[in-house]
Every structure is written in structure tokens, then in C-alpha cells.
Amino acid sequence: VQLVESGGGMVQPGGSLRLSCAASGFTFSSYGMSWVRQAPRKGPEWVSGINTGGRTYYADSVKGRFTISRDNAKNTLHLQMNNLKPEDTALYFCVRSTSTLADYDSRGQGTQVTVSS
Fold first, then answer.
1. Are 20 and 113 in contact (CB under 8 A)?
2. CA distance linking residue 75 with residue 2, whole number of Å
3. 115 and 88 in contact (C-beta within 8 Å)?
4. In this structure, how many other beta carbons lie within 10 angstroms of the beta carbon of residue 58?
5. SS3 call for 25
6. In sequence order, which residues have a C-beta less than 8 Å from that of residue 33 and are 6 or more positions away?
7. What whole-number distance in Å separates Cα of residue 67 and Cα of residue 105?
8. pLDDT tens over the chain, length 117 residues
9. Strand ranges inside 1-117, DSSP E
10. CA–CA separation, 61 and 89 (whole Å)
């Protein structure tokens, strides 16, 4: 299993970023996928997930601002993040979900998102 995130960076409050995750080494379409983030000195926080049928789920903290999507033909997961806030600053991981979308058995190396003026 290999998950490689990209698209992070530094943005001002109110800005947007689009994260991508390239998946390989497993049958991507057969797994739910999620994004998890970890801010400095805090534990991991589940952000958003998408099941094999394409149904999407969001943490309350990002609902209405973030959009998760998947392209099974390209084995790619995306997270469109709009109206970013300083509290969104974290290392964002793409994860392969297991029994629930919030549980996972594999993750990438992460991509840093920093929201600051």
C-alpha cells in the first residue's frame, strides 16, 4: 500500500487549497478513504471520508468548507478546502479506511497546510 499526498502549502485565512492523494498497491475502488489531520501538540483528527459508493462524510469543524472526492479510474483522492481558517493548520494525511471511515490501516507521509496572515 502506498499513499502519496500533495497540494499542501501556506495560505491566508479565507483562502483555498486542493489536496491530492495518489494511491497504489491495492484495489482503490474497494476501500473507503479518508483524510486525517494532526496539528502540533494535538492528536490525530478525522476530517472527512468517502465510502466505496461515493457517499461523503465530514467532521463538523469542516462541514460546508471542505469537499472530499475520489477518482477510481485514476486511483486518486482529493480534498478541496475553501474558506480556510488558522485552526485548519495541520499535517494532512490520506488514509485507507477499514471497519469505519475513521479507522484506518495505512496512511501517507502527509502534506503540510498552514493558514496564516
1. no
2. 11
3. yes
4. 17
5. coil
6. 21, 23, 49, 50, 70, 77, 94, 95, 96, 97
7. 23
8. 999 999 999 999 999 999 999 999 999 999 999 999 999 999 999 999 999 999 999 999 999 999 999 999 999 999 999 999 999 999 999 999 998 988 999 999 999 999 999
9. 2-6, 9-11, 17-24, 33-38, 45-50, 56-58, 66-71, 76-81, 90-97, 104-107, 111-115
10. 13
